[in-house]
Specification:
Distance between the termini: 45 Å
Number of strands: 11
Strand content: 15-25%
Oligomer: single chain
CATH architecture of the largest domain: 3-Layer(aba) Sandwich
CATH topology of the largest domain: Rossmann fold
CATH class of the largest domain: Alpha Beta
CATH superfamily of the largest domain: NAD(P)-binding Rossmann-like Domain
Structural class: alpha/beta
Length: about 280
C-alpha cells in the first residue's frame, strides 16, 4: 500500500482563488476590501518571515494588510494600547498578534484583549468557548486547515476513531473538539500517555501535533488510516520534515499530508477565510 498524498498547497490555492473572486466582486460593487492588521513585537527572525508571508497572501487576494511593529522592549501597556486602538478601528476587520511574544509580555493577557469578532486566529476565550459549545465562531486556523484536508479524502468522520497527538491550545485541543463535533470518537494522546502507539494504531484518523520530529513511525499507524502531519522541523541540511516519519508511514497509511506542502499552506488560507468572514460580519 502507498498512501495517497493530500496536497495542501493545491487545496489552499483553490480556497485563495475563491476568496479573491469574492473580494473582487464586492470591491467592484463599491465595498472596501477586507483589512487584516498584524502586530509584531520584537525582531524574531522566524516571526518576521511569517508576517511577511501573511502580508503577501493578503495582497494576493485583494485584502489590505497592515503591519504594526513594536520594539522588543515594548511594555504591556504599549501592546494593550495598540490592541485597543485596532479593536476600535472600524476599517480593521481582523487582528492577528504574532506569537511568540518577548518573555516579559503575557500572551494570554494580550489575547484576552482582542475583540472576538476580529480574532482571526481564533484564540480568544470567547471563540474557544464557542467552539467547545459547537456554535459559530472564528475558529483557530491550523485546526480548520486540518479538518479541511481530512474532508478532501471524502471519508465520512461519523463513527470513526480519531487520535490526536498533542494538546496545545493552538492545534491539539481545538482539533480534538472539531473532530468530536464531526462525529468521530477522539483519543487524546499526551506526553504522559502509556504506550501511545498501541492506541493510535487503532485510529482511522491520526493528527500528529506533538512538535517532536519523526515521533510517529509505522508502529503508530493503522493500515489505511488518514494521517495529518502538523509538525514542522528544519534539519541541519535545511530541509523541512514533520512529526511523522514520512517514508515508512507512507507505506501503511491510506492518506498522508507531506511536509512541506500539507498543513502549512492551509493555515494561511484559513486565516484569509476567517478575515473574510469577519469582514462579512457573519460570525459573531
Amino acid at each position: 500500500m502507498t498512501a495517497k498524498i493530500i496536497d495542501g498547497k493545491a487545496v489552499a490555492q483553490r480556497i485563495r482563488q475563491n476568496i479573491q473572486l469574492q473580494v473582487q466582486s464586492a470591491v467592484a460593487s463599491g465595498k472596501r476590501p477586507p483589512c487584516l492588521a498584524v502586530i509584531l513585537v520584537g525582531d524574531d527572525p522566524a516571526s518576521q518571515v511569517y508576517v511577511g508571508h501573511k502580508a503577501k497572501a493578503c495582497e494576493a487576494v485583494g485584502f489590505k494588510s497592515l503591519t504594526f511593529r513594536l520594539p522588543a522592549s515594548a511594555s504591556e501597556s504599549d501592546l494593550h494600547a495598540k490592541l485597543s486602538e485596532l479593536n476600535q478601528d472600524p476599517a480593521v476587520d481582523g487582528i492577528l498578534l504574532q506569537l511568540p511574544l518577548p518573555s516579559h509580555l503575557q500572551r494570554d493577557r494580550a489575547l484576552d484583549l482582542i475583540a472576538p469578532a476580529k480574532d482571526v486566529d481564533g484564540l480568544t476565550p470567547m471563540n474557544q468557548g464557542l467552539l467547545l459549545a459547537g456554535r459559530p465562531a472564528l475558529y483557530p486556523c491550523t485546526p480548520l486547515g486540518v479538518m479541511t484536508l481530512i474532508e478532501e479524502t471524502q471519508i465520512p468522520l461519523r463513527g470513526k476513531l480519531a487520535a490526536v497527538v498533542g494538546q496545545s491550545i493552538l492545534v491539539g485541543a481545538p482539533v480534538s473538539v472539531m473532530l468530536s463535533k464531526a462525529g468521530a470518537t477522539v483519543i487524546n494522546i499526551n506526553s504522559k500517555t502509556v504506550e501511545p502507539h498501541r492506541l493510535t494504531a487503532q485510529a482511522d484518523i491520526l493528527v500528529a501535533a506533538a512538535g517532536v520530529k519523526h515521533l510517529i513511525t509505522s508502529s503508530w499507524i493503522k493500515p489505511g488510516a488518514i494521517v495529518i502531519d502538523v509538525g514542522i522541523h528544519r534539519g541541519a541540511d535545511n530541509r523541512l520534515t514533520g512529526d511523522v516519519a514520512y517514508d515508512e508511514v507512507a507505506k501503511i497509511a491510506g492518506f498522508l499530508t507531506p511536509v512541506p506542502g500539507g498543513v502549512g499552506p492551509m493555515t494561511i488560507a484559513m486565516l484569509l477565510k476567517n478575515c473574510l468572514a469577519a469582514w462579512n460580519n457573519n460570525i459573531l
